[in-house]
Specification:
The chain is an alpha/beta fold. About 35% of the residues lie in helices and about 15% in strands. It contains 4 helices and 3 strands. Strands 2-1-3 form a 3-stranded parallel sheet, sandwiched between helices. The N and C termini lie far apart (about 35 Å).
Length: about 110
Amino acid sequence: KNFSNQQPATAEPVLPPRLHPGDTIAVVHPAGPVVDPVAFESGLHILRHFGLQLRHHHPSGSGPDYLAARDEERVRELQRLWADDEVKALMAARGGYGCLRIIGQLDLDFLRSH
């Protein structure tokens, strides 16, 4: 398909508010498990160094070994933290195939409303 004669997007990007020391961010696991706990803890330390408060849910590991948890648990936890009014941002511990597995299960109307 030829896309060359399509009009460029004119919508401005939607940018979240800046984070400030004292703000709370949630570290989520929408895909795979943490494979290097030392590096993961080092990353959390850096975020704390910037004065950010952290919410971190340790997934159950109930899914296949290449996923942090079952799809349903990862969706539930992501949406719970998304709706938490104290959480100013979400940060994924890892990305990957697990995100593709759950994207169709996310309630987009729910996410837009929060």
